[in-house]
Design a protein that fits this description.
Number of helices: 3
Strand content: under 5%
Distance between the termini: 19 Å
Structural class: mainly alpha
Order of helices and strands: HEHEH
Number of strands: 2
Number of domains: 1
Radius of gyration: 18 Å
């Protein structure tokens, strides 16, 4: 059994992939803050993404879902539009909102990596390293 096959490591890897994708999406929104007509977008919450994967894993036949589990990139179906008020040029990016989301993403990334490190430390302790 590999470390990646253990469910907590798998969950941490999925969370970090989701956070990476979200950070890229938010950075794209910030980079286009002056683009006329730009509508900001964000990923669907991580819980919704995990629920989709867990639903697939509850099937009775392993042939019903792909062996890879979760795609490395989030598909466009899991992206939601977050536009609210629009500027006169049609741009709907609120820098305050995007920066707050980005800060939350950074905090969640730090938490996920800390949990990953601590869990890995338990394995090192168990094998005497």
């Amino acid at each position: 059994m590999t470390i990646a096959g253990i469910s907590l490591f798998d969950l941490a890897e999925r969370r970090l992939t989701w956070l990476d994708n979200r950070q890229q999406r938010l950075a794209q929104n910030i980079a286009n803050a002056d683009t006329p007509g730009w509508a900001p977008s964000d990923l669907a919450p991580f819980a919704a993404d995990i629920g989709r994967v867990q639903g697939a894993l509850l099937r009775t036949d392993p042939g019903h879902f792909s062996p890879s589990g979760v795609p490395a990139r989030v598909s466009e179906a899991h992206i939601r539009n977050t536009s609210g008020e629009r500027a006169p040029d049609g741009n709907a990016v609120s820098l305050n909102d995007q920066l707050a989301r980005l800060a939350g993403t950074e905090t969640a990334h730090d938490l996920a990596t800390d949990i990953y490190r601590k869990y890995l430390g338990f394995f090192r302790l168990a094998i005497g390293r």
